Amino acid sequence: MNDNQKLPAHVRFFLPIIEVLKNLGGSGSPSEIKDGLIELCHLSENELDEKLKTGITRIDNQIIWSKIYLTQAELIDSSNKDLWRLTEKGFKSNLSENDVKKLFKQIHSKFISKGLKKAKKSNVTEIETESEITEIPKHKEELLSILLSLSPEGFERICQRLLRASGFKKVVVTGKSGDGGIDGEGILEINALVSLKVVFQAKRYKDTVSASQIRDFRGAMQGRAEKGIIISTGRFTQDAQKEAIREGVPPIELVDGAKLVELFEQQELGLKRKTIYEIDIDFFEEYR
């Protein structure tokens, strides 16, 4: 790779990921890191919505590739898929743009070298490019697809089931027209003496939920409950997320498609746990 060759788009996230992790105290969940990148890099809604053929968003794809390179460079440890953390080397790093270019080329050359070895063994003449990758397990996409295919009433009832499994009591689906978008309500017991009435809205959306929809829901819940939850199969815009926690008004919990899948996983609703083993090729290298 010569110095004038254009670098892949994901390289732009190398330094921001390190900065976000430092701002988070050295570690963070993938969602926290993504939120930090959205704010730090001023990512637009159009960028966040753009998807590749596999269904993964282009931004998520680039973040995954950045994680792979930064892990290979021993700047971050992502052995726990739910928590990325800076290594000591990552904490002490103060990389320049030129350092980033050198880092990319160094790691990239290793990938190319491994790719050539595999290609020779299998008589393959072309090495795959890194244009598209997905670490999203197949069941996550399938689950979201199934939830989107449910009827509106069915999605409300499955949200009711999820809330019950998550510890809410007396969860009922109201689903009345003209009810300001409130689809149901329940009681969340904080402890033996304190409980909160909660109303929820179930949005079977493929697209984004806007700030105005958050405000409409908050208006409908005024005087009826202490807490509100909006559950969506889609994504909340940045303005919607800010509106949900705006000072001076009741906060609203937002559950987007990714978090919804996580909740189904935690409660094992409609999912069966499986253990899968993957061969660690590098482990055997010293024995060849």
Q: Main sheet: which strands, in order across?
A: 4-5-6-8-10
CATH domain fold name of the largest domain: Trna Endonuclease, Chain: A, domain 1
Shape: globular
Average pLDDT metric: 85
Order of helices and strands: HEHHHEEHHHHEEEEHEEHEHH
Number of helices: 12
Instruction: Count the domains.
Output: 2
**What's the count of strands?**
10
Largest sheet: 5 strands, mixed
- Report, as a whole number of angstroms, the end-to-end distance: 30 Å
In the CATH hierarchy, what is the class of the largest domain? Alpha Beta
Low-confidence stretches are 116-130
Tag the structure with descriptive keywords.
288 residues; alpha/beta; Trna Endonuclease, Chain: A, domain 1; globular; Arc Repressor Mutant, subunit A; three-stranded antiparallel sheet; five-stranded mixed sheet; single chain
Verbal overview:
The chain is of the alpha/beta class. The chain folds into two domains: 9-121, Arc Repressor Mutant, subunit A, CATH 1.10.10; 141-267, Trna Endonuclease, Chain: A, domain 1 (3-Layer(aba) Sandwich). The protein contains twelve helices and ten strands. The chain has a five-stranded mixed β-sheet, sandwiched between helices. A three-stranded antiparallel β-sheet has the order 1-3-2. A hairpin with a 2-residue loop joins strand 2 and strand 3 (83-86). Helix 1 crosses helix 2 and helix 9 packs parallel to helix 10. The protein is globular, with a radius of gyration of 22 Å. Residues 116-130 have low confidence and may be disordered.
